[in-house]
Design brief:
The protein has 406 residues and is α/β, with parallel strands linked by helices. The protein contains 15 helices and 6 strands. Helix content is 50%, strand content 8%. α1 (21-52) packs across α9. The longest helix is centred in the N-terminal third of the chain and has 32 residues, at 21-52. The structure holds guanosine-5'-diphosphate and magnesium ion.
């Protein structure tokens, strides 16, 4: 266990950069010899790579452990929502089943039947399940961890991947203890359960494992927030950023983390949309590629769970109407995104300081010159920066409304 530290440290902040050191050097040298036009194709390739990055997350454990419920929780779905994994059914299939994330379908959670719920021996199970295709593993148990869980973890480790032990339904355990005991100490009871799990795994040959005690019904409680922070830590940077964008919007912290990830895409969009491809837009002082602007704003909205389908699910969950949620958020960016909406956005926007632009352009400081006043690059950069800022504020308002409704 324990995520390996990110290998690329070109950037000072915690969110991953999308580029390897090699790619950064290439960008620099290409820019020095050929300017913006020469780095455009490299950035286009990177944006495509980001769009196409797949993430396959395996969730395994015995029947009834709470896998399906967890998979739904991570995708922001309740069991009655469209696309949700069926809950409370015993496994009839021996095959892994994939469940795409509703907003980012390249991210898939896979329900893997636990070794114990199949007809296979541990050995043939490990062969059959093609563990290589998964990026990391979540091993769920409700009562106790077994030899099989330990075998699986060892095999995952051998493949150089990360695994996480999750002890599910902790809310139910604590509730029943609370009812039976006159003096109830929740922290002490949790520690008892935790050390039981640790010793079970220790006996099975996994010394000192981290075990997360969670309830999929209470995602802001117990170890769920800690689990979310830990997951994905060992992934390559591009995958890690995609994982962050696929998290449920549980807290302001998660929304801000998504914002940081998206912010690092803005200068790429700006370079791609500027120059030759740009067209004059009435109301904007510089030519811009409106198609790219609209696509980027729609993408931000999806990643921040502000697309129509996500708002509809949230409305149902909180017994509010979509209109009420939108009214509380007061954001024109929740309506259909048109050129007019984008132009209006620019009119009321705050200017970005040049230092912010330079910070974004850590790749090639010289690129700053193409961001001169009135350039299409600067215009695209500013518009997307403002749009992202507004959408993050909107996401925080929507989160506050959702929390207030419980
Ligand atoms: N109290 C409580 N019940 C849960 C939790 N997760 C799952 N369950 C319940 O446990 C049962 C089995 O869950 P399911 O997700 O279908 O388990 P699976 O067979 O591993 O996919 C269902 O009745 C769920 O509602 C949890 O975090 N807390
Ligand atoms: Mg299931």
């Amino acid at each position: 266990m324990g995520g390996s530290s990110s290998s690329q440290q070109a950037d000072q902040s915690e969110t991953p950069t999308y580029f390897t050191q090699e790619e950064l050097s290439k960008l620099k040298s290409e820019f020095e010899t050929g300017g913006v036009e020469k780095i455009k194709p490299l950035l286009e390739k990177k944006v495509k790579e980001l769009d196409n990055t797949e993430l396959n997350i395996a969730v395994t454990g015995d029947s009834g452990a709470g896998k399906s419920t967890f998979i739904n929780a991570m995708r922001g779905l309740r069991k009655q929502d469209e696309g949700a994994a069926a809950v409370g059914t015993t496994e009839t299939t021996m095959e892994p089943t994939g469940y795409p994330h509703p907003n980012l379908p390249n991210v898939r959670y896979w329900d893997l039947p636990g070794i114990g719920s199949t007809r296979f021996t541990a050995g043939s199970y490990l062969k059959k399940m093609q563990l290589k295709k998964y990026d990391f593993f979540i091993i769920v148990a409700v009562n106790r961890f077994t030899e099989n869980d330990a075998k699986l973890a060892k095999e995952i480790k051998r493949l150089g991947k990360e695994f996480y032990f999750v002890r599910s339904k902790i809310d139910a355990d604590l509730d029943s203890m609370r009812q039976q005991q006159t003096t109830f100490d929740e922290d002490a009871e949790m520690e008892k359960i935790r050390s039981d799990c640790v010793s079970q795994l220790g006996k099975a040959g996994i010394p000192d494992p981290t075990v997360f005690l969670i309830s999929s019904f209470k995602k802001n409680m117990y170890d769920f927030p800690h689990l979310i922070k830990s997951l994905g830590a060992g992934l390559p940077n591009v995958k890690e950023s995609v994982f962050v964008l696929a998290l449920p919007n549980l807290s302001v912290e998660i929304i801000r983390k998504k914002g940081e990830v998206l912010k690092k895409r803005i200068w790429m969009w700006a370079i791609i949309s500027g120059g030759v491809g740009a067209i004059p837009v009435p109301g904007l002082s510089a030519a811009c590629d409106m198609g790219i602007l609209i696509a980027a704003v729609i993408d931000f909205r999806k990643c921040l769970c502000l697309n129509d389908a996500a708002l509809r699910r949230l409305a149902e969950k909180t017994s509010k109407s979509v209109e009420e949620l939108k009214a509380a958020a007061q954001s024109s960016l929740l309506e259909e995104i048109t050129a007019q909406v984008i132009v209006r956005l620019r009119l009321g926007a705050v200017a970005v300081t040049v230092s912010a632009i330079e910070a974004a352009l850590y790749v090639a400081p010289g690129v700053g010159s193409v961001f001169g006043a009135g350039s299409s690059f600067l215009m695209t950069y500013m518009i997307l920066n403002d749009a992202l800022k507004l959408l993050m504020e909107t996401a925080e308002k929507v989160l506050a409304v959702a929390k207030g409704a419980h």
